[in-house]
Amino acid sequence: MRRVKSGAKIILFTILKYFFEKNELAVLADLATFAANLGIMSLLVIGSVAFDAIETPFGKTDKIIGGAATYISMASSYLCKPVNLVAVVGGDFPQEQIHQLNSMGVNSEGLQIKEDEKSFFWSGKYSNDMNSRDTLVTELNVLGTFDPIIPQRYQGCEYLMLGNLSPDVQIKVIERLEKRPKLIAMDTMNFWMDVAMDDLRKALTMIDVLIINDEEARQLSGEYSLKKASRIIRDMGPKYLIIKKGEHGALLFHEDKVFFAPALPLEEVFDPTGAGDTFAGGFIGYLAKLDQVDFEHMKRAIVYGSAMASFCVEKFGTERLVGLTNEEINDRLKEFVVLSSVELNLD
Amino acid sequence: MRRVKSGAKIILFTILKYFFEKNELAVLADLATFAANLGIMSLLVIGSVAFDAIETPFGKTDKIIGGAATYISMASSYLCKPVNLVAVVGGDFPQEQIHQLNSMGVNSEGLQIKEDEKSFFWSGKYSNDMNSRDTLVTELNVLGTFDPIIPQRYQGCEYLMLGNLSPDVQIKVIERLEKRPKLIAMDTMNFWMDVAMDDLRKALTMIDVLIINDEEARQLSGEYSLKKASRIIRDMGPKYLIIKKGEHGALLFHEDKVFFAPALPLEEVFDPTGAGDTFAGGFIGYLAKLDQVDFEHMKRAIVYGSAMASFCVEKFGTERLVGLTNEEINDRLKEFVVLSSVELNLD
Fold first, then answer.
1. Distance from CA of B43 to the nearest CA of A (A)
2. Which residues contact B14 (CB under 8 A, 6 or more apart)?
3. DSSP 3-state assignment of A90?
4. pLDDT tens across B57-102, in order?
5. The complex's ipTM?
6. Neighbours of A88 (CB within 10 A)
7. How far is A336 from chain B, CA to nearest CA, in Å?
8. Is residue B5 very low, low, confident or very high in pLDDT (cuts 50, 70, 90)?
9. Of the four, A43, A340, B99, B334, which is 20 to 30 A from B53 by CA?
10. pLDDT digits over B182-210, tens only?
């Protein structure tokens, strides 16, 4: 696939942005295909797009927009446009939310709308210290029978982020791509380890980067030590493993190398919902933007992911992820650099 | 107080080392006084010297040497010799353990030996994941009536590390120093917040650096957010606050600045006992060695503390802290630097 020079990219992005803003989706789709063929529109995101109802010590929401793919798409859209979304919602999903995503640079051609069904719904309540949460309601609805359809224009994508979903669906997505992406990253959760371990094992052999939290890494490997766990999990397939530790930062393992990025100490974590997905979005968005797949770029991508996640938790749901400025993001990144910079002058 | 040039320091240290190795403690004491008057023998450590009996998933010890001041002294001795120890033990404390400390550069003139009494004894058992521990036995013994006596030769010390003890004893130590040290760092624990909060509050007004863990910071401040907690605690007195988060690293707060140092991801934590004290020892030892008290040096000191702590947990008790080489320490420091190094090329 041909690569275009960065000047051409900038011009193309400007044109794309214009049509996004005008909401000219048909024109946009054609342009998207054109750009995809040039190999520069290459991020594909799959996962849930859903309703959440959240209760934290700071307040309570009605049904608001949520779902892994929503957070991933929004976060990555600040780094790489457009984001090609594959997901499913019911007829109850508000059109204006789809337009919101579109306006942020998310291509919703791959978003199936099942008019007679209901969207996935999750409701949860956080403990006072925000360190644990109880699930109050899980209604799978459309997600129970989700058959991921990849629009033809999405074919040729180079970066694929598989948000947390049944491993069976994650495998289908990979199998339905005509050409294997340059990088496949995947999230999963304990639930799938309990009920779909065979499928999960198969999925792990097909991906490059697994992004999970510490608890999940321990369950998947049967090892408490994250360093030992990281080797066992990478033996299952992924060359890169990211272990998220929430407020305690994230670890990246590859070959014999380890990188650690802290989480920013925040005044207040208002709502942690979606922070992990936002992290994944920032991570994959950065790699797709730079179009580089190596340890050094993954380190930077993790810092971008952490920065995006630090915004996410400041307000309910996706609220803080809408309308971020480049300056805000840059300032946050600088805070990360300052936070862990030290000069030791070793021999 | 006059400062000597670094060439003179090196010569003096070589002479001191010679007498340590010869076990010529009387000569050493005179030399120590001489050096102290020059302002270069300036680390004073106070805390418990004790027996521990430890059970972890990896094994079980009989009574072994432990106590906050033991770990602090050993760790700091790799950076700054001699370490002037103030503590109390009973007649049951083995002379060879004191010689062990002496051989590492720890001056035990301030170690009171109460022949007819027993040393402080603690026994604990760690959970399978090492994340919690139950105290099985606490016998205060000599520590119950500890009256800290500062030998005349220790007067003039510039760096003081107050290991975890009753705040009343910590205050006495400060009050018994003829000249206020350049830097006073202190550790404490939840227990004292419960039973001696008034004394603790007074102690906090007398120190520069408080070193506590996240749980203790939350209890002391009544705030869950560590960032908010850090402000409340610093309003109580200390200009610098270090919050240790165990396997999740450590945070340093000062004015509007924050620094985070990760803990090294280890294959196995064999025995966490004393890791926090070892961290404190590496921290204060580095500052005493460099004789610099500012945020940048404290950042580096925290990395040294983390490196020393990463050794401590690899074996039972103080075992791993004996006989470390400079090369081992340097290699560990380099691992820390690699672990969190990332270049972002921000504007």
1. 22
2. none
3. strand
4. 989 999 999 999 999 999 999 999 999 999 999 999 999 999 999 9
5. 0.85
6. 28
7. 10
8. very low
9. B99
10. 999 999 999 999 999 999 999 999 999 99
Lowest average pLDDT, out of A38-52, B228-242, B244-258, goes to A38-52
- Which positions in chain A touch B260 (Cβ < 8 Å)? 249, 262, 265, 339-340
Write the DSSP string, B306-331.
HHHHHHHTTSSTTGGGSS--HHHHHH
pLDDT higher than 50, residue B346: yes
Which residues in chain B are closer than 8 Å to A258, comparing Cβ atoms?
265, 339
| pTM of the predicted model over 0.90 | no
CA A229 to CA A244: how far, in whole Å? 13
Over residues A125-184, the pLDDT tens digits come to 999 878 789 999 999 999 999 999 999 999 999 999 999 999 999 999 999 999 999 999
Cβ–Cβ below 8 Å for B337 and A330: no
Structure tokens belonging to residue B157: 């010390």
Give the distance between the most distant pair of CA atoms in chain A: 68
Mean pLDDT rounded to a whole number for chain A: 92
Q: Is the pLDDT score of A35 beyond 80?
A: no
Look at the block and give the residue holding tokens 């397939």: A237
Do you know the residue count of chain A?
347
Is the CB of B337 less than 8 angstroms away from the CB of A346?
yes
* B340/A224 CB distance under 8 A: no
Q: Bigger pLDDT: A31 or A203? A: A203
Contact call for residues B155 and B178 (beta carbons, < 8 A): yes
Q: Which of B340, B283, B273, B284 is nearest to B307 (CA)?
A: B283
Residue of A245, A265, A342 lying closest to B299 (CB–CB): A342
**Closest CB to A227 among B228, B260, B266:** B266
**Helix %, strand %, coil % for chain B, to 5?**
45, 20, 35
Pick B344's closest partner by Cβ from A300, A344, A347. Answer: A300
CB contact under 8 A, B342 and A303: yes
Query: What is the Cα–Cα distance from A28 to A16, expressed in whole angstroms?
Result: 7
pLDDT in the model for residue A3: 43
Contacts across the A-B interface (CB distance below 8 Å): 98
Minimal C-alpha gap between B19 and chain A (Å): 29
> What phi and psi, each to the nearest 5 degrees, are found at residue B30?
-65, -45
Tell me which residue has tokens 């401040």. Answer: B221
Report the pLDDT value the prediction gives residue B117, as an integer from 0 to 100. Answer: 98
Q: Does position A6 have pLDDT exceeding 80, yes or no?
A: no
Element (H, E) at A100: helix A95-103
Closest-CA residue of chain B to A214: B248
Read off the tokens for A305: 């992911």
- How many other CB atoms are found less than 10 A from the CB of residue A334? 14
Q: Are A339 and B299 in contact (CB under 8 A)?
A: no
For residue A329, the chain B residues in CB contact (below 8 A) are none
Residues of A with Cβ-Cβ distance to B257 under 8 angstroms: 338
Q: State both tokens at B61.
A: 């010890």
B128 chain-A contacts, CB cut-off 8 A = 224
Look at residue B344 in the predicted model and tell me its pLDDT: 87
What is the C-alpha radius of gyration for chain A, rounded to an integer number of angstroms?
A: 19
B64-66 and B133-139 beta bridge pairing: unpaired
CB contact (8 A) between residue A227 and residue B267? yes
Reported confidence tier of residue A344, pLDDT bands at 50, 70, 90: confident
Angstroms from A192 CA to nearest CA on chain B: 23
Which residue of chain A is at minimal alpha-carbon distance from B334? A346
